[in-house]
Amino acid sequence: MNQKKRVTLLDVAKHAGVSRATASLIVRGSTNIAEKTRKKVLESMQELGYVYDRVAANMRSQNTSTVGLIITDIGNPFFSELLRGVHNSLEEAGYTVFLGTTFDSDSKQEQLLSRMLEHRVGGLILCPVSDSSHETIERIKKLDVPLILAVREIEDIELDYVGIDYVAGSHMAVNHLIQKGHRRIAFLGGSSGSSAWQKRKQGYCNALVHAGIEVDESLIISSTVTREGGVNAIQKALHLPNSPTAVFCFNDLVAHGVMLGLDDARKKPGKDIAVVGFDNVPEASLYNPPLTTVSSFARQIGSEAASLLHQRIIDRDRELQRIIIQPELVVRSSS
Amino acid sequence: MNQKKRVTLLDVAKHAGVSRATASLIVRGSTNIAEKTRKKVLESMQELGYVYDRVAANMRSQNTSTVGLIITDIGNPFFSELLRGVHNSLEEAGYTVFLGTTFDSDSKQEQLLSRMLEHRVGGLILCPVSDSSHETIERIKKLDVPLILAVREIEDIELDYVGIDYVAGSHMAVNHLIQKGHRRIAFLGGSSGSSAWQKRKQGYCNALVHAGIEVDESLIISSTVTREGGVNAIQKALHLPNSPTAVFCFNDLVAHGVMLGLDDARKKPGKDIAVVGFDNVPEASLYNPPLTTVSSFARQIGSEAASLLHQRIIDRDRELQRIIIQPELVVRSSS
DNA sequence: CTGAAAGCGCTTACAG
DNA sequence: CTGAAAGCGCTTACAG
């Protein structure tokens, strides 16, 4: 181990011939210091290779300059867009961010929450897993750290929340398919435990019922929220005795998988079967064919969540905020 | 502020009727403790809502359980794949990870490096920006924190590195276009400062020269590494007096932009003009048309980087490692 | 197992 | 500006 000993503020102070208190003031950017002294100290820091120990400082002053962000899966472009939105605002505001991914596993979520709390994060943005356990929920309730929920809500928990109106979005999507003359419309993919799924299902059912079409439960096939999930779901759908002429997918990632599956089955999306997604990820316009989808403004959700967190950290007692973004249908040639 | 006072280990110890030392041992999972005592202490923790302060513990024991990961842009699926690779291994190993994105800005990179060091990270994985300033380079050299370079190298710096053989990859891609009968092949996108760009250019030139085709500098058009960059680059290329019949793109993201630009110009990729990308992001197979590209195994780069970092943290004096992954050409219908 | 003490690298508060 | 002291929440080392 060729570890050099860490240079401390006291080392710097001695080297510059000032007191530790003065050095501390300078490192924190105080203005009431003679320019000459400040310069001398800054030079000593340079020379000694001093690195400010923010961890020690935060501990002493009971501050924190980190926040945690827990998402489901970075492989889903929806979350990478959300991450961009969050990250920009948060880094701007001077936070250093811990990132964790749950892959929709409750135990992973537990573990990440624990770790981040043990690291004394100043706040958390959580995109909860589909089936948060009772323990997790109880725990979150007791948390005295600012926490913002994004994308999915958790029942019985009153927290700041940013999401979109899934019911309205799904309604739009399915209604669009109905307008195009479809009657047998499948709802594919997504894990049935999540609020995001349930709301989409609700929008799906609403649209059907509204058009006088009976809901056929066999056309509702859940899956993991991955491309693979989409492939599996469409395969099941195609093997149905009375297979659908159109599919509404849980999200674009699943839609991507559905298209891959259709490809395998030698069916052309948009011709043999209509496909609609959800999210409008940046890639959707370049899918083959370009995907009709519902825009869920992931980046905006991210930046709203960041700003909610920031405000909640500043003022713990402010009123609870619920921000629901309105989705938009984007029609392309897959439907 | 409705902040409860933090419960400390001493509070727990008192509550359980043991000494602080004992409580400390238990919280760290020591085995030489009577089962009865351990149980009592764990119950007290539960009851009081104790949260282990890993920050204080790390400070005292001069440990660290965090690592930093600095990438260019999460919007690029290449990096989200890489992130997945890194993240899995690192979280597995018990680290909590700080994420930073530079958007290829040197000052952002500086800032992120500073912040992470101030947070006492135990190690760093850095995907350096295209033009790291001299200061940054000097600084990195002096760092006594384990640091792994990924994706791009920095001249004059001897560090563990994981990347792929860009020269070979580009050579494959361009050679493929030559085999298809193309003579006027453009190289579009990417920032000319980066080693990744220069190596791709080298592979591009090698392939041309090898086939007896003269390199036409006007066909080499750099850009930002974004979809927008790709759109701009193809527009410039199409306005050339003698426009290309095929384009080799810096990466799939740029290729995506190029295809969007071709769309605007009413040209069909794969028919009117051949397009080849680089990276083989998961979406590439679903582009319209499916994109011929060179696979750069982003996820593998990520997991290799994580494992290098882990090993470097364990043994500072081990030999430098350079891992160069061999790319593979994936032919689809865009060429 | 206990108990008392010292220390990680800072900030805070205060008398001068 | 200085100097000395106390403290953030832990771990470490040691005598008992």
Automatic annotation (TrEMBL), chains A, B:
PANTHER family, per the entry: HTH-TYPE TRANSCRIPTIONAL REPRESSOR PURR-RELATED, LACI-RELATED TRANSCRIPTIONAL REPRESSOR
Keywords: DNA-binding, Repressor, Transcription, Transcription regulation
Keyword DNA-binding: yes
Lineage: superkingdom: Bacteria
Family matches, as SMART domains: HTH_LACI (SM00354)
Entry annotated with the keyword Transferase: no
CDD domains, sorted: HTH_LacI, PBP1_MalI-like
Annotated protein name in UniProt: LacI family transcriptional regulator
Residues of the HTH lacI-type domain: 7-61
